[in-house]
Each structure stands twice: as structure tokens, then as C-alpha cells.
Automatic annotation (TrEMBL):
<dbReference type="InterPro" id="IPR029063">
    <property type="entry name" value="SAM-dependent_MTases_sf"/>
</dbReference>
<protein>
    <submittedName>
        <fullName>Uncharacterized protein</fullName>
    </submittedName>
</protein>
<dbReference type="Pfam" id="PF13578">
    <property type="entry name" value="Methyltransf_24"/>
</dbReference>
<dbReference type="InterPro" id="IPR008884">
    <property type="entry name" value="TylF_MeTrfase"/>
</dbReference>
<dbReference type="InterPro" id="IPR011990">
    <property type="entry name" value="TPR-like_helical_dom_sf"/>
</dbReference>
Amino acid sequence: MAAYELSARGAEMQQRGQLNGAVSAFADALALHPTADRRFLLGMALEENGEPRRAVEMYELACQSSDSDAILRHDAAIKLADLWANDLGDVERAIRYVDAAMAEEGYEHSTFSNSAAFDQKAFYLAEQGKLIEAIGLWDAAIEGTEEVELVTSKNMEGEAVSRAVARSHLGRFFRAVAKVLLGRNQEAETDFAALPVECQYMVDSWKYIAAAHYPQEQRLLQGVQQNGRQEVGRLFTGPYTILEEALASARPDGLVCEFGVFHGKSIRILASMVGPQGSVDGFDTFEGIPEAWGDDPAGTYTAASEIPPVPDNVRFHVGLFSDTLPGYVASLESPEDLPVRLINVDCDLYQGTVEILHHMANRIGPGCVICFDEYLMTQTWPEDEYKAFQEACTKFGWEYEYLSFSLFSKQAVVRITASES
């Protein structure tokens, strides 16, 4: 089969969610006829398949290829920035890649592309605690996006306009949060008030965090200094750092489990963190969510029944939680001998979270850390993982403390401090 046919097959498989097959097809095409474009395509498939380090390698090779052009190098740099910040936990390197994209000679830098890069870099600076600099970039991003909407919306595809509008709303929201952290409350309220009603869930998420769960004397655990910098970033942090700190804050022994594996990105992170002497149990149907969630129909987030490639210290339990969990917990040592160290809940749904917490309840005790992947920042968050956890706390007599939130990644991390279960 010719390289172009293999590339076409890879694209079809990627479209169907068959990412293992897509990666294989793109790799075969690249072996037959190495080009910058084929390296880029393989990088995208690897990224979607939750293999960030291999994706980074491909994007970097694409940039270094003699046949690469300015557009490819710009786009690859933007993707590399996202991978390093959110999947590999190196924000400083991510900033360098955004800067490289912005400086790419020969690329036709537009108000639209620049506003997206400004927005991306603003998140990275905010994670580092450089709030004043981040606000300046959000100012530029919002201004640029609004200019694009006014001037070119008639000539842009509807999806592109929608993305620009959504990014503008998110930028305004996060800019407002940064202003609150700096004590610029009146300015922040103006930004919050300017958001449309469909963004109220963002404001409600922030109000929940700010009003009830962050000690004021620690300035929302952000350590904001007089010069506008933060010692530790939380609200703008990506998934890698959240998981890293969650595991470090948990008891030193016990089960590490993930519920909702998808393509395996976060379970690979956990597997690397526990090391070869540890293990991670992953639970998923690999066929998508079993029921509708918000605007997403049943079957969304499917891995097309493909089991993702993972390290040897990962064990999969394939099926619905209600089918796999009873046998799993029955096979374990006593709860006293084998408690839960960390649970990563990434199933999104209320019912799935209820089942997880019910079956694992007698192993969840002081020192257990639970990371919720969609706890906040969705249209239905008060009815999903958040609700299931609050009900479980009442049912099982759990007391807990919040360790961190990320409005950016929608995650929340809790540590159980007392339990009657």
C-alpha cells in the first residue's frame, strides 16, 4: 500500500476513534515516505491517543524536517506548548514554544492567531503566578478576538466564529478571577457581569470555590504577593500537576485506581508516578459514556473498544462499573490491609460516581485522596460528580478537605480526614 493510501486510512481510523490503528497507519506511511506533514499527522494521532511524549517527538521532528514550512512550524509549536504545559508539567518550556510560534518568520500572523496565542500564554503565566502579566495578555486576546468578530465574522466559518467567541468568554472569566486574586474586585465584577447567561456556570464554579473552601488568610491558597505574583498556582493548573500533587498528598500505601480511562493519558501519568513497584487499576468500557451527559449523547468519548497501550504496572477491568467493581473489591485483601490511596474519577456522570464511591466506600478513609476530573466548570456540574461526592459524604460519614481546584482543567482534589464507613 502506498504512503498516501496509508495516510488516508489513518485519517479515517482517527475520525472513527480507532486511534491505535490510526497511529499504526500513520507510522507506516511515514516509514515509506518521510515528510514533515506525515510527522505532524502522526503527532496529532499520538496526542489524541494520550501519548504526549511520543507526540512531542513527532512534532519536533516535523519542525526540523527540511520540507517543513512556517505554517507547520507555527502550528506544531502551539501544540508542543499545550503538551508540555498540560500533559508533561513543564510550563516554562510551554511558554518558550508559544513565544517561538509568535516569532515564526514567514507565518502570516493575524489578529485571530495572535489572540489565540496570547490567551494560551496567559494561562501559563497565571499558573506560574504572574497574574499582572497574564491579565495584560488576556486584555490583548479579548480585544483581538472581539476585533475579529466585528470585522471578519461574515467571512469566517460558523465553527471558527463560535470558537473565537467561546475563547473570548473564557478569557474574560479567567481575567476576572485573576483580578479577584489581586484584590481588584470592582474590575472583576465588571468582567463577570459582561459574561452572557450561558456562562453563569463558570461564575457559579468560582463562587463555590471562593466563598466556602479557600482560607482567606492564604489568599485562596495562591500565595499572591504584593508584586502580583503567586508562589503556587492552582486555579490555572493543568492535569499533570494536579495529579502529581494529589498523589503526593495521599497516604503512602494502598490502591491507586482510575475510573474512566478513555485513551489512557492520565492513567499513564499515574503509572509513571507510582513507579514500577506500584500499580494502577483502570476501569472503563472503552465504548464511551453509557448515558447522555449534558449535550453529549451516550457513546461520546468512546475509544472504539480499543484498549490503550499502557505500562506493565497498569491492570484494566473492562466493563461497566456496576459489573466490574463487585468482583474486583471481593478479590482484594481486607480494607484494613488494603485501603485506597488515590482514586481518579474521570467518568463525568453522577450515576457512575455514585457506583464508584459506593463500592469503594469501606476502603476510603483518612489519607485517601480523590481527584475529580469534571467537578466544576460544566453546565451541569452541580448535578454530576460534585453531587455524588456530597451525597457520599453524608451517607458514609466522611469529612474532607479540599487540596486544590483547577478552573482551567475542571478538576478538584479532596483528602478524606475522617470516615464512619
